[in-house]
Amino acid sequence: MTTADGTPDRLVIRRPDDWHLHLRDGLMLAAVIGATASRFARAIVMPNLKPPVVTAAEARAYRDRILAALPPGSAFEPLMTLYLTEETDPDDVAAGVAEGLVRAVKLYPAGATTNSAAGVRDLAAVRPVLERLEAVGAPLLIHGEVVDPEVDIFDREAVFVDRVLAPLVAEHPGLKVVLEHVTTAEGAAFVAEGPPTLAATVTPQHLLIDRNAMLVGGIRPHNYCLPVPKRALHRDALRRLVASGHPRVFLGTDSAPHPRAEKESACGCAGLYTAPVALELYAEAFEAAGALDRLEAFAALNGPAFYGLSANEDTVTLERRPTTVPESVRAGEDEVVLFRAGEALAWRVAVDRADGTTPPED
What we know:
By secondary structure, this protein is α/β, with parallel strands linked by helices.
């Protein structure tokens, strides 16, 4: 079926994977894991817990906690990552990769985002780890921002691409690198023109909003994430990137739940919780970009190909049918507000479980 202008009103795509996800731990993990597991088959799980997941043994223990928190009957597979520090042991990384436990290593420039204080200050100090990743074929996932206080926060990604990412890619031509949550025209162009070892994830929020959504009419803490949304011209560059069908650009929600009190505080934390409506948000963004026919590859094919995995065989169905974003979810005594809480969306997931059952009506 199609609408009067010829666009489809129903999309059946292979079940997607989320290549950038924050699940947290404890009560928060229990509160949010079901939303991802009902729609995504796999997810690259971020390691920036408190304390961070630094070793293979810690990744194994975290994976066990995630599996224990899954709803009964879920077939969701968490793909584990290690938090790169200047003390990371290359042998431990390689052993975790060989076991099939560690799928990637995450580089946070120290101080760049949530729980990044233990991140990397001197890239030279982690060269042995980068060389080992290159040798074993595991990706380096990068939060691509400089933390130089002289650099404007809206320019930190573009400066990172120029100062850090371009030399890194040149110096390690065999290293798989993912520029996560790309937000700028400069980052999009660098990935589009880059070598086969370079990829990027794109979030729904960076495809949908610009910096006005954070600041016009008052400070909007539930639109605040890092990297921060940029000018509309950068949002539009990201839309062109995904609409191009580039094979090394894929879905990564960066869904990042925080308690409401920590978001709505004098120093509110960065991160948006999108997992329960992520596919609907992407459908809206791809439709705005005139690229609904490219959504399946972005969501379900490009990521597995880059990571050397098979695409999922089962499907999910998106229908053009109005739905309202829930206001919040509970995590113990905490409340987590969703991105676009209370707003109407044009799309909804009609079948979001592997057994083919349909979710309840609103």
